[in-house]
Amino acid sequence: xxxxxxxxxxxxxxxxxxxxxxxxxxxxxxxxxxxxxxxxxxxxxxxxxxxxxxxxxxxxxxxxxxxxxxxxxxxxxxxxxxxxxxxxxxxxxxxxxxxxxxxxxxxxxxxxxxxxxxxxxxxxxxxxxxxxxxxxxxxxxxxxxxxxxxxxxxxxxxxxxxxxxxxxxxxxxxxxxxxxxxxxxxxxxxxxxxxxxxxxxxxxxxxxxxxxxxxxxxxxxxxxxxxxxxxxxxxxxxxxxxxxxxxxxxxxxxxxxxxxxxxxxxxxxxxxxxxxxxxxxxxxxxxxxxxxxxxxxxxxxxxxxxxxxxxxxxxxxxxxxxxxxxxxxxxxxxxxxxxxxxxxxxxxxxxxxx
Length: 354
Description:
Blueprint: E1 2-7, H1 16-27, E2 30-37, H2 41-47, E3 53-56, H3 68-90, E4 94-97, H4 103-112, E5 117-121, H5 128-133, E6 139-142, E7 156-158, H6 172-179, E8 187-191, H7 198-206, H8 208-211, E9 216-220, E10 236-239, H9 246-252, E11 255-258, H10 262-271, E12 275-277, H11 288-298, E13 302-304, H12 312-324, H13 326-334, H14 341-352
Parallel strand pairs: 1-2, 1-4, 2-3, 4-5, 5-6, 6-7, 8-9, 8-11, 9-10, 11-12, 12-13
Helix pairs in contact: 3-4, 6-9, 7-12
C-alpha cells in the first residue's frame, strides 16, 4: 500500500486543507499518517478522523525579541530527529505539508530521507515556516496567482485550496433546528477564527439588539468567549467552535462575517457566500490576512473592514449594505473560475511519489 505523511498545525487553517484531501487519498489507496505537535489544535482534529497521529517537539520562529528564541531552536532540533525517526519507521512515498511551525522539522527530515515533499501555501505571500521549508520541497502549491513570483519558479504550482467536500452538502433546516431558530429572518454567520476575535465579538454584541430585529445570528466566538448574559437571546446562537455541524451552518448562512485566513475565504468562495472580511491587523500579524482580503475585494467577492475601524455602527451598516447587494457578490464568485484544487494536488502527489 502507498503511504503518505501529512503535517501542519498551529491553527485550524493549517489542518483543514489536509483533511479535505483524506477521502481522495484513501480512495487512491494511500495509508495516511499525520505528524503534528503534542497538544496543538491539529491533534484533536486529526484523531477525530481516526488517522494515526504522532506528536513531536516544535518551536516558534519569531521575528521579534523573546527569551524563547534561545530555547525554541533546541525544540525544533529535537523535533527534527523525532520526525526523522518516524519517517524511517513509516517509510512514506511522499510528505504533504500545510505549513505552521511544526511542519518545518518534518519537511527538513524528509529531505534527509530522500522523501519527496509537497508544500501548500495558502496566503498571498509565504509565511516564515514555509519559507524555511521551501528549499527542502519538491513542489510548492499556492492559492493566489499573485503568490507565484514569491516561490521558486521550478517548484511553483497554482492549485487553489482543497475544500472539504462535506461543506458543499449542508442542510439549512438542520442548522435552524440545531440553533433553535424558528423565524424567517435572514441568517448572519459570524466567525472569528479558531481562537475567536475580541474585536469582532465586541462589535457584534455591541449592536446585538438592533441586529436581531433584522437577522438571526450564528456566532462562532472562539474558545472561552461565550457570553453567558446572551445565552437566552432569541435568534442568537453562540458556539465556541463547530466542526460536525459546520456544513449545515454554512448552508443556512445568507451572509458571513469572518477573518481573512486564506482557507476560510476560499471556502466562502466555493460556497458562494456573500461576506465581510475583517483581517487581522499588522499589529497582530505579518499582514497576510490584509493581502488576502484585498485580493478578494478587488475580485468583487468580499467587502472589507480594517480591524482598527470596526465599530458596532460601522459593522452594522456594512452588513446591511452587503445584504442589499448579495446578488452582485454571488455572481462574482460564481464567475470566478475557481480551480479543482483536490484533483490538481492529487495529480502532483502521484507525480512526485517515489
